[in-house]
Amino acid sequence: MDRALPTSPPLFASVDDVVTRLGETGYLANKATATSVFLADRLDKPLLIEGPAGVGKTELARAVAQSTDAELVRLQCYEGVDEARALYEWNHAKQILRIQSSSAGHQDWDETKLDVFSEEFLLARPLLQAIRREDPTVLLIDETDKADVEIEGLLLEVLSDFAVTIPELGTITATRKPFVILTSNATRELSEALKRRCLYLHLDFPDADLELRILASRVPELPEAIAEQMVRTIGVLRAMQLKKLPSVAETIDWGRTVLALGMDTLDDDAVRATLGVVLKHQSDQIKAAADLRLN
Question: 117: how many CB neighbours lie within 10 A of its CB?
């Protein structure tokens, strides 16, 4: 007989509730995004969010955690991340000190062995931390595509059963299932097996109207005319072949920069002087200055 998976009380009452509560944190979600979050919560399934860097994938996880008074537990993926960094490992230095102390006190080895492989010496990493928490938890597995393919097998196991077997301690099973969000910049294809476990949401850069609303929410003192010009310019930049397209966060930073400098217009001189806020490669700045025909 299959073991029953842990369940969690719903975090959101409806799609509109998602929109409202995320909005209260400053995250303005469209209907598709809110619907995906609601269904992931209601169906108790992980949500895989894919899209270019800087569109708000990680920020969405933070907003879900903040809007539901949940703890955000983050596993940052990178090339070479292994099971020890993702799940758990033993505090070897502390174990050696205990063994040396026990040897000096002539403690029996069998007793020492039981002692050093106890909770006191266990270092829980993000996956285990999320499984063991009894309070509301959002587990963010960030930039999953940067991890090696082998890690996907571990994620499949954990996301299937929400249980971890530690040979020395036994099986640890979640009593409250975390809300799981995986993000990917699509630098490589994730396995079909992992995708089948998840609901899928593609996030792209917001349209001009939504980005204006975001800018007004985050930089309310920015004059509307400058905000509109800024969003139009960002749209042009994102249509260029650049090394890194400007993110929503960089749009917000640009608005704050203009305010900090006391600029009352966004003319060619102002754009050229502040272009480094939104474009972080010199080649991108040179190309943008030429294509925008900045004097």
Answer: 16
Residues 6 or more apart from 170 whose CB is under 8 A from it?
Answer: none
Query: What does the alpha-carbon distance between residue 206 and residue 142 come to, in Å, rounded to a whole number?
Result: 20
Query: Do 221 and 71 form a contact (C-beta atoms < 8 A)?
Result: no
Q: Are 232 and 292 in contact (CB under 8 A)?
A: no
Question: Is the pTM above the cut of 0.90?
Answer: no
CA distance 264 to 111: 74
Residues in the chain: 295
**279 token code pair:** 């474009």
Angle formed by the axes of helices 31-43 and 57-67, to 10°? 60
Q: What is the tens place of the pLDDT at every residue in 54-99?
A: 899 999 999 999 999 999 999 999 998 998 899 999 888 887 877 7
Q: For the chain, first and last CA: distance in Å?
A: 73
Residue keyed to tokens 């393919």: 149
Half-sphere exposure of 127 (CA within 13 A, CB side): 29
